[in-house]
Amino acid sequence: MGGIPLPGELGLRARDILAGRVEPVPARDAATVVVLREGSGGVEVYLLRRRASMAFAAGAYVFPGGSVDPRDTDHAVAWAGPAPAEWGEVFGADEKLARGLVCAAVRETFEESGVLLAGPSPDSVVADTTGDDWEADRLALIDRSLSFADLLGKRGLVLRSDLLRPWTHWITPEVEHKRFDTRFFVAALPPGQRTRDVGGEADEVAWVRPADAVAQAGSGRIFLMPPTHRTLTELSAYEKVDDVLGAEREIVTHMPRIAEVDGVMHIVLDDDYRFGAA
């Protein structure tokens, strides 16, 4: 057994939470998207390295994503594909939250990678988002001077929820000071679009085979949070992007728990104390 040891203040906090002396911070609803493409060696995923100065997951390689903004639940968002109620059934969420999760997934992906899962019609997708006008809109989304609904409206676009597939559900352990209740999606890079280094919370971006990312984490070359590690390990089993998108997934909720292992407080998963490490 192993898990992730909790030294110092986090270890003390873990003991206080288990003893009922400290209440865990509520988890914020969030969405993340694994953007996929076909590479020369098979499926590749888009990863960002979070800046060392970030309060949460500093230095970790992550997928694009972030918290649900209250405006993400706006009914003014033009919509194509499975309705919010259908997404709610998949993720165990009410219709309002499901709408917010899907909108947050598409919005955050555009903010953090330049990829936009939207098009002029329910069966088309934007071909290029690299112009200066697109960059101005992306920055306006980030500083919240522009809502996602307004972005789609002024460009005559509809959100393509059918380009997303559900993958999994993770909740940050109770010991953390910042916690997220995150639904994971997968999506293919739309034809004609390309990711770019858009800065902001990330200081490096990369396309990498899932198995290679897991191997790099195992050798200490990169740092992966447990949900990212587990997701990349799962994706390593697929040869083609279409195979990933066509996978039948049962959405399981994971929340690593606090436990004492050999006298030391740890974050552990019941089914995998080492989080997939070799």
Topology record:
Elements: E1 4-5, H1 8-18, E2 28-39, E3 42-50, E4 61-62, E5 65-67, E6 79-80, H2 84-91, H3 95-113, E7 118-119, H4 132-142, H5 148-155, E8 158-160, E9 165-171, E10 180-188, E11 202-208, H6 210-218, H7 226-235, H8 241-245, E12 253-254, E13 257-261, E14 264-268
Parallel strand pairs: 2-10, 6-8, 9-12
Antiparallel strand pairs: 1-14, 2-3, 2-5, 3-4, 3-11, 7-8, 9-10, 13-14
Helix pairs in contact: 2-3, 6-7
Structure, explained:
The chain has 278 residues and is of the alpha+beta class. The chain has a single domain, classed as Nucleoside Triphosphate Pyrophosphohydrolase, CATH 3.90.79. It is 29% helix and 25% strand. It has helices spanning 8-18, 84-91, 95-113, 132-142, 148-155, 210-218, 226-235, 241-245, and strands at residues 4-5, 28-39, 42-50, 61-62, 65-67, 79-80, 118-119, 158-160, 165-171, 180-188, 202-208, 253-254, 257-261, 264-268. α2 (84-91) packs across α3. The mean pLDDT is 90. InterPro entries: NUDIX_hydrolase-like_dom_sf, NUDIX_hydrolase_dom, NUDT19. This is Nudix hydrolase domain-containing protein.
Count the strands?
14
Q: Number of helical segments?
A: 8
How many angstroms separate the termini?
12 Å
Task: Characterize the largest beta sheet: strand count, sense, and whether it forms a barrel.
Answer: 8 strands, mixed
CATH superfamily: Nucleoside Triphosphate Pyrophosphohydrolase
**What's the mean pLDDT score?**
90
Reading off the top of the CATH hierarchy, the class is best stated as Alpha Beta
